[in-house]
Amino acid sequence: MITDIVIGLQHGDEGKGKVTHHLLGSGEYTHCVRFNGGCNAGHTIYHNGTKLVTHSIPAGVFYGITSVIGNGCVLDPVKLFEEIEYLESHGINVRDNLKIANNTHIITTLHKDQDGKDEKIGTTRTGNGPAYRDKYNRTGVRACDIPSLSEFLVDIYEELSGDSVILMEGAQGFWLDPDWGDYPYVTSSHTGTAAAIQNGISPRSIRNVWGVIKAYETYVGKRSFQPKKEIFEHIQKAGQEFGATTGRVRQCNWNNLKEIKQAIAMNGVNRLVVNKVDVLREVGAWATTDRYFSRELLFRQHLNEQLHRGLGIEKIYFSDNPVNIGEDMPATETPSWFSREPYAMLT
Ligand code: IMP
Ligand code: MG
Questions:
Q1: What are the pLDDT digits (tens) for 185-239?
Q2: Catalytic choice (4, 11, 13, 115)
Q3: Segments of 246-343 assigned E as strands
Q4: Which residue out of 11, 22, 31, 43 is catalytically annotated?
Q5: How far apart are CA 128 and CA 126, in angstroms?
Q6: What are phi and psi of 50, to 5 degrees?
Q7: What is the rounded distance in angstroms from the CA atom of residue 122 to the CA atom of residue 114?
Q8: What is the pTM assigned to this prediction?
Q9: C-alpha to C-alpha distance for 196 and 92, rounded to whole angstroms
Q10: Distance between Cα 59 and ligand 2 center (Å)
Q11: Ligand 1 center to residue 251 CA distance, Å?
């Protein structure tokens, strides 16, 4: 068993779907597993030029790879069948590749009604929180109790055992984790490497942990996140920052490198992808929460220096398109033509 994990290091919507889809294209994986969250997630994927959004179904289905909804997820059967139909109407063979861990908990109509009344957190109102609540209250319903799911059910340990090469597709982001996020403005399942391990794999099988960030940050929910500056409205527009699940506007801010470093360290991230560099290029502004840069190269150089050093990152990729992860930037070398400029502090 060899396992690679893809996780978000911000507040979700980092582009994990794209990274997962790109990695699956290598052809080496036997399984793709979703290990947390449920239909609160929205992963935007460009497959053969078509834009598709998934919620519960792992991206392995795009390549005919066995795709498992893991026991760390919660699952809404009504939404699942809608998603199967949606993907199959776009020519994706879901039914022959989809598996569901028999111990995955179910989102019921009651859960959706309860979550639908949320005014405090700004949840996606998809019933995830109440379903996890009942799981830990030991009053939940599991996939093995639902007849319509029987054709998909597996014992996830048995399914993943043996000569498997697994890609684990995370949802949400580390700073939405119930323990590590800004509680109570968090999601209801764990979002890091530890969450992936709970889904029938051995921790010793982990090869790469891919951490995904955007060149800036976004957040959807009730707390106030976006500073009152025009630049963030430009970023929001250029980056089309609307929730893939809820359609709500995503609040924007610059990257907080301190938080990203902690997320890298706590999750054992060794590969980092920085998405949506093209958006900052379009608005013509380069900054983090404490510094701004006069041009793109200085911004990249700063991230490269700050996020490699002592953190165990072997490769950083800067991506400026919705399809692939772009070129990796050497960890230690500074290009010879690069002239060091003093960084300006943001006021
Ligand atoms: P819930 O996960 O639906 O309970 O929502 C809790 C918080 O997590 C809200 O702020 C949601 O907007 C946020 N959230 C949940 N899933 C995602 C996601 O996939 N991307 C971004 N935010 C999310
Ligand atoms: Mg999303």
A1: 999 999 999 999 999 999 999 999 999 999 999 999 999 999 999 999 999 999 9
A2: 13
A3: 251-253, 271-275, 286-287, 291-293, 315-318, 328-329
A4: 43
A5: 6
A6: -105, 135
A7: 13
A8: 0.95
A9: 26
A10: 13
A11: 13
